[in-house]
Design goal:
There is one protein chain. This protein is an alpha/beta fold and 483 residues long. The chain has 16 helices and 15 strands. A 7-stranded mixed β-sheet has the order 6-12-11-10-9-7-8, with helices on both faces. A 4-stranded mixed β-sheet has the order 5-14-15-13. It has a two-stranded parallel ribbon with strand order 1-2. α8 runs parallel beside α9, α8 packs across α12 and α15 crosses α16. It is globular, with a radius of gyration of 24 Å. The relative contact order is 0.12.
Length: 483
């Protein structure tokens, strides 16, 4: 049974030919099966979303230099698999097969999710899965447990750090189930209940939750107008004596700021004097929207001899569904984390690691395409906020995934709660504070398509008018998860 998503876009015959790549016809039967397989791959890879109108059979046949019969047979195969839907007078469009007991809601009925700053998958994941089949088959003869991660992925991650100016050996990399998992492992390895952990204000909500879950106490140092408050950080290191620090210096979540090379050197120097290890969240480092990550400031561990643990993830750069991250740290620290890990889990899934290693075999083309698309969405969101919410102020970030908007009144939580009734999910500023506050702030990710971003902001502008001066309503949806 195919999904019933209505047509919502169109792909030209030239675009479809480019997506099919090196497909060539080899006889009527084999050619039609090959064409169907090629289209199936780009549909399942997310490059032809459900509802994309396909070229007419005659047009595609001319573009490919094959018979219309071959294309028609391929269409029949795709219809049988539930991957396209055809209607007389309307043409054919892509679909996804769904179980008989499920219905596919109209795209218009789905909430506009601005709570999770997480884009869809990059093109090429389905191809990467096909490319690693033989390597995965070889893994099936073993037990499937890799304490530190699959070797090929550790090597590729180490190569990426080396290219960014931090020579790294694979033995200095531990693969985890995402950056959040990596932070949780570090906290359980390097802190005890009641220890203090230095953080920024604002900062990533899930980092705050992880610190509290480890029974540690977050100590927040507010960011200042031009970035990090180095004097405040140095004072907090002296007065609070934190056991660990946590910073996001590359496209800070939620503000989008980036710490320059001089600031990194000063930060590492202060941490070294205080003998405070630091976890640096690099989840967004690949999303440099105004430049190339390889040309940016070197990773924080390159600036001194302080104990720096860099935590990375494929969730924002490639896809959250891979659920893979890593820790880059000195070898003795990696061994300690791996030893502590056995109490919580026994390793990360093998197939996903092989797929990510394949994507990192030649990472730049995929990452360039990702950055181009995200930059387009950033600019669309900036235009939408300036049009519909001209009283909201923000800095246009050079990277990352979100705008950090200052509201004219302290209505962040009320706005977020009421917005759910308007079909928009958004995270208020209070979620980014270790101890509450920040009611004049709102994080707006630019991870949706431009048209949806514009509609979400239009709705938020109406919500803001409605909630001004009114008490906060009770949310029917409960806690809003943030990514």
């Amino acid at each position: 049974m195919a999904s019933s998503v209505p047509p919502s876009g169109r792909v030209s015959r030239q675009q479809l030919v480019r997506l099919l790549g090196e497909w060539r016809a080899h006889g009527s039967r084999q050619g039609s099966a090959g064409l169907a397989a090629g289209i199936k791959l780009v549909v399942l890879d997310g490059q032809l979303p459900p509802g994309t109108v396909l070229p007419a059979e005659r047009e595609l046949a001319e573009a490919l230099g094959v018979s219309r019969t071959l294309v028609g047979t391929a269409w029949d195969l795709l219809r049988a698999d539930g991957l396209i839907v055809s209607r007389r007078g309307s043409g054919s469009w892509t679909a996804l097969p769904v179980a008989a007991d499920r219905t596919w809601a109209s795209l218009d009925e789905q909430p506009l999710d601005l709570a999770r700053a997480a884009p869809e998958a990059v093109p090429g994941i389905a191809k990467a899965i096909d490319a690693v089949r033989s390597r995965f088959a070889a893994e099936l003869a073993g037990h499937g447990y890799h304490d530190y991660g699959v070797d090929i992925l550790r090597e590729r991650i180490a190569e990426r750090y080396t290219a960014r100016g931090l020579p790294t050996d694979p033995a200095e990399v531990l693969i985890t189930n995402g950056a959040h998992h990596a932070l949780a492992l570090v906290l359980r390895t390097m802190t005890d209940p009641g220890d203090r952990v230095l953080v920024e204000l604002p900062t990533y909500p899930n980092a705050i939750d992880a610190i509290k879950a480890a029974h540690a106490i977050p100590v927040a140092v507010p960011l200042v107008e031009d970035g990090w408050d180095h004097e405040g950080i140095e004072a907090a290191l002296r007065q609070a004596s934190p056991r660990l620090a946590h910073f996001i210096v590359d496209f800070h979540n939620p503000t989008g700021r980036r710490l320059d090379a001089d600031g990194r050197a000063r930060l590492v120097s202060a941490l070294r004097r205080a003998r405070t290890p630091v976890v640096v969240d690099e989840t967004l480092v690949e999303l440099d929207l105004d430049g190339d990550p390889l040309d940016g400031p070197a990773p924080l561990p390159a600036f001194g001899e302080a104990t720096v643990l860099a935590v990375g993830s494929a969730s924002k750069s490639h896809w959250g569904g891979l659920r893979l991250g890593w820790v880059r740290a000195p070898r003795d620290v990696i061994r300690r984390i791996a030893a502590a890990r056995h109490a919580y889990d026994l390793g990360s899934p093998v197939l996903e690691q092989l797929v990510l290693a394949e994507l990192y075999a030649d990472p730049d083309p995929v990452l360039r395409e990702r950055r181009t698309e995200i930059a387009t969405r950033r600019d669309a969101l900036v235009a939408a906020v300036r049009t519909h919410c001209p009283q909201w102020t923000f800095e246009v970030p050079g990277g990352g995934l979100s705008l950090w908007c200052r509201l004219p009144e302290p209505i962040g939580t009320r706005l977020a709660v009421t917005a759910q009734n308007f079909g928009v999910r958004v995270a208020p500023g209070s979620r980014f504070a270790a101890h509450g506050g920040l009611e004049r702030w709102l994080r707006l990710p630019y991870t949706l398509p431009p048209a949806q971003l514009a509609e979400a902001v239009r709705r938020l502008s109406l919500v803001a008018e409605n909630v001004t001066g009114s008490p906060a309503p009770i949310s029917p949806y409960g806690h809003i998860p943030v990514a």
